[in-house]
Amino acid sequence: MDRVRLGQSPVEVVPLGVGCWAWGDKRYWRYEVDLGPQDVVDGFAAALAAGLDFFDTAEAYGAGKSEQLLGWLVRQAPRPTVVATKYAPLVGRGGPAAIPRALEASLKRMRLPHVDLYQLHWADRDEAPIGPTMAAFAATVHAGQARAVGVSNFRAGELRAAHAALAAHGVPLATNQVRYSLLDRTPETDGVLDACRELGVTLLAYSPLEQGVLGGRYSPDVRPAGLRGDAEWFAPERLAAAKPVLELLGSLAAAHEVEMAAIALAWLLAKPGVIPLPGATRGAQVTANARALSVTLSDGEIAALDAVKAD
Known about the structure:
- This protein is an alpha/beta fold and 311 residues long.
- The chain is built from twelve helices and ten strands.
- The protein has an eight-stranded parallel beta sheet with strand order 3-4-5-6-7-8-9-10. Strands 1-2 form a two-stranded antiparallel ribbon.
- Helix 5 (156-167) links the parallel strand 7 (146-152) and strand 8.
């Protein structure tokens, strides 16, 4: 399976990742209620069976539980995997000086000698001023604890500043992880996608299926249970407005004999420099998502998806 580099870093991945936010997260994803350890094991196994190798977690996911689960799984995996995690610049944590300790804690939870991609989870000019923070991240690369550095939820200006700050320490900025899907095309209009391409930074698209909406799982009358169902993107009016997008996805899915989710992901895969990170809560879901890698959308199909908008 073809692999791509994360930006100008040495890290190469299959260009469809697996997001691990739900793994161990009880508050939002209802871990141990709507999914459990066996679902995580099945999802990981399905990813490997489909040829996927890139797994994205964070210390904030499930208060470290996601890192623990992923670390346990990759240590037993029959082939190499690529692991990404994130540092959360929480108020009062200690600023850039806290980053080395935080990475050591993440590595301890995962029981891994290093992480392939270490990311700043969000920008915060007070808790994580870009210059000193990128210097601390670059130091993790020079120390052999991380192979590459990324950021998350960075705007175009912040992205450029981080890129320059890292370059001063001889480390390329590999990635910027932002929300991007058929229902949220903000990176196309706020300058982030253009900045990523100009600087050679890979855009990692989180929530590429809008947490299941683009897979056709939800409607104004069918929403997730618990806190997730109260999120703004599951508001009945927003689900109703998604109808034109879902109808086109359904039509293209039937034509390609895949699930709707695979078409939504294939649309992102057709964008140069973009890698989707759909979440994984079931093995069958991962298998369906991975079919996106075998879908080749025509220029006309891509244009139709580019043009379709929520009402």
